[in-house]
TrEMBL record:
Protein name (database record): SGNH hydrolase-type esterase domain-containing protein
PROSITE patterns on file: PROKAR_LIPOPROTEIN (PS51257)
Record InterPro entries: SGNH_hydro, SGNH_hydro_sf
Residue ranges annotated for the SGNH hydrolase-type esterase domain, each copy included: 58-226
Coiled coil, from the record: none
Keyword field: Signal
Annotated signal sequence range: 1-25
Gene3D superfamilies, alphabetized: SGNH hydrolase (3.40.50.1110)
Region of interest called Disordered, as start-end residue ranges on this chain: 35-55
Amino acid sequence: MARAIRPATVVCCALAALASLTGCAATPQSDAAATDRWQAPSAATPTPTPTPSPSMLVFGDSWTRGMAATDTAHAYPHLTGELLGWDVTALGEDGSGYLHPGELGGFYGTRVAELNPDLDPDVVIVQGSVNDRNELISALPRAARAVWRAVENTYPEADVIILGPAPSTLPLDERVEEIDAVLADLAAEAGLGYISPIAEEWLTEANIGEYIDASAAFHPSDAGHAYLAERLAADLAELDPLSPFAPVTE
């Protein structure tokens, strides 16, 4: 079930204070004079409770880790968080995919089993992966379903969004295009949001040289990560219903 981010509500009680009578009267006082001795009740000023920022977990490969970026702060997950005002946790492993083991030996399936259940994100982005392009694509549906199911079981209140692979070189590798098509169909079957950088032409012949660093194994540069963050933030803002963008008003 998608989580609803509700604005913090402050309940304040009006506190009436009675001013003490000063002095003693030797002679009877008129009703008007007696009334003047009372102070009008004053309402306490409420102290606003800060609304917590929505949180996002981005799970993926070397693009999510920020390979070729100056540091993780310049990688697209954290830059997306800055644009949206969200807290972000990024978990990426170089070379990892649904079917391909990463630099540390992790497949997506083995890595999701290690997710911290206490993280409790509002949104989970599962990104990738071009690393599966040389694997048996017929095995992708089973692997992807298992990964997404594990994410949903670990974070049952989070919105899970699938971010497909983005081209690192052009012309587009047909195998990467096939991965994108398979994941898009699977996400639709599962009722999950799907963002396709390929279908939306995030990277084209006109801009790929500006955003992809060929000297860094064809990964996004700092400029590339900033661009990816802008595109991702814009797409997330259009997904409906996505609770962090649709606060529930009491």
